[in-house]
């Protein structure tokens, strides 16, 4: 309290946003207009082929062979569900669709379960060599799949995993884990330590802290991870091409063989492709509600 | 409810940093003990060791009659209120408060009853279904309190629970915490850097500096009889004025303390209270004067040997009283040890020279004073309440 008398006059600052000039505002409006226009163009570029595919899947093979899909707007009578009915009777496509589900669901669930547990340990449990282990896992991110195809093939040959769904799943899990652990570890590490300590004081053991505090708070990260991993595995062709056989082929592989054998059998291709697109879309919209901004808001001061 | 006993408690971090040294404290059953000190003094570390969130390097912690050094937090049966509140963001107020009870697998009905009771005490009944992010700062703070209270623990540990609230709310919550603690009678260890909180809340206050306990006692004792310059400076606001002075004995055997041209006579009561002072006759001492022990001589009357002359450099009207800053010509306190104590403790720093080339003192005058800036003033000092410290060690001069 020995503050010496100040001779400077007190300056009064009027709070409030600085007034923007007319030019700045104009640029702002113009800028956001440009952004919107670009977004619109991108959306059209992506949506038109999808729409075309969808419409083609609703037209007969002969219609598709004689006229473009856009003629449907002038002659809507072309539309039919026949292709879809035929698809349901196509055992090869339906089996491969089933295979895709059998591959994708475990490959996603396993990655999330293993990665969440590992990420919690790497973020919050003190054990020797923890930081090195983290670095090692992050380092694995740079490993390209292609490098591993041949060694893993030999390994699978040894263990008889070739051509099995389990083999494909294991490969996806192994290569999905580094990114998954990295993403979740970083998210978990960002949870305030106070929350975990509060739970500890409240009587929770490690497992309960994980299940009742970290996991619910980490839900947004887990949801985005689930979407990434699901899409990656669902759309995979390369891994399936190397490790799956006819009986374990996913839909991407089955559609590809259609393409090779018949060239223009668009009725099967369009319908099958659309079917394989619908599921990821459903998954995306089901999970995107978990992308809630600021889930942590209000927990700590 | 039970006592908490710290014996020789010490904490050394992995990198060799020492946070707490040989801390001995007995917190009695139902007592409200405040650990206070500047930031980095080890008070939070000590609290976290009691909580079990930090490993104990040396010494023991007993809660009840049980040594808990190796007992994990969850089994210590203590509850903590965090500075950040640490509310679970995904749970509503009810579930936040009920969390600890549900982990203990209490019957649903019992949980419901206890949460509602606590919500009633804290006036949270209307917010039980809301998530923390929809609550105000004060409400969040109360939820954090509720989470501790509902468990009916052996002891409450509070880590600066009010520091995130605005000034007005802080005063309200301070009163509420005091009331709740008294009603429940739970042993409480409360950490703060705010000396006002320490003084108003604590049955006893423990002052820490650099991990070392300086003094522990009831608030008034710390204020009246600080053991050293650090405590003297830390307790009280504005801080105690300190200045370098010399103790003289006149021909009439009377003791007086002189700083340059001014001097104050020591009443007999001071010498009776501080017999050791006689050993300092003719030697330098550090003189401490609390702002409250000074008054405008125009109001109380000047008295020979108890009045300082100066001119008012700055006048701060606080409404209830007026703070007057005035320089006196004296050399500042010299030794490093003392200087460190002074600056750590937030005492009025004697270092920087005032406009008139001396030490600037602060006096708390009655609002009836008509002193204005630049005016010559006479300041009456309550000489019975002067403080004296050894200039080498900074310790108070009392008996030995």
TrEMBL record, chain A:
Q: Which SUPFAM superfamilies match?
A: MetI-like
User: What is the topology of this protein in the membrane according to its UniProt annotation?
Assistant: Multi-pass membrane protein
Q: Where in the cell is it found?
A: Cell membrane
Tell me a GO biological process for this protein: transmembrane transport
> Cross-referenced Gene3D superfamilies, in alphabetical order?
MetI-like (1.10.3720.10)
Q: Which CDD domains does the record associate with it?
A: TM_PBP2
Domain of life, source organism: Bacteria
Q: Which UniProt keywords apply?
A: Cell membrane, Membrane, Transmembrane, Transmembrane helix, Transport
Which residues are listed as membrane-spanning? 26-48, 101-125, 132-152, 158-184, 213-234, 268-287
One GO cellular component this record assigns the protein to is: plasma membrane
InterPro entries with a match to the protein in the record: MetI-like, MetI-like_sf
* The ABC transmembrane type-1 domain, residue ranges: 97-287
Chief site of localization? membrane
Short name of any one Pfam family annotated for the protein: BPD_transp_1
The Swiss-Prot or TrEMBL record describes its family as follows: Belongs to the binding-protein-dependent transport system permease family.
> What PANTHER family does the annotation carry?
ABC TRANSPORTER PERMEASE PROTEIN MG189-RELATED-RELATED, OSMOPROTECTIVE COMPOUNDS UPTAKE PERMEASE PROTEIN GGTD
Q: What is this protein called?
A: Sugar ABC transporter permease
Automatic annotation (TrEMBL), chain B:
| UniProt name for this protein | ABC transporter ATP-binding protein
Q: Does the keyword Nucleotide-binding apply?
A: yes
Supply the alphabetized keyword list.
ATP-binding, Nucleotide-binding, Transport
- What species does this protein belong to? Gandjariella thermophila
InterPro entries associated with the record: AAA+_ATPase, ABC_transporter-like_ATP-bd, ABC_transporter-like_CS, ABC_transpr_MalK-like, ABC_transpr_MalK/UgpC-like, Mo/tungstate-bd_C_term_dom, NA-bd_OB-fold, OB_MalK-like
* UniProt entry tagged with the keyword Ribosomal protein: no
Superkingdom: Bacteria
Q: What is the lineage of its organism?
A: Bacteria, Bacillati, Actinomycetota, Actinomycetes, Pseudonocardiales
SMART domains the UniProt entry points to: AAA
Q: Tell me, what is an example of a GO biological process annotation in this record? A: carbohydrate transport
Q: Which GO terms describe its cellular component?
A: ATP-binding cassette (ABC) transporter complex, substrate-binding subunit-containing
List residues of the ABC transporter domain. Answer: 4-235
- One of its Pfam families is OB_MalK
One GO MF term on file is: ATP hydrolysis activity
Gene3D superfamilies under this entry?
A: 2.40.50.100, Nucleic acid-binding proteins (2.40.50.140), P-loop containing nucleotide triphosphate hydrolases (3.40.50.300)
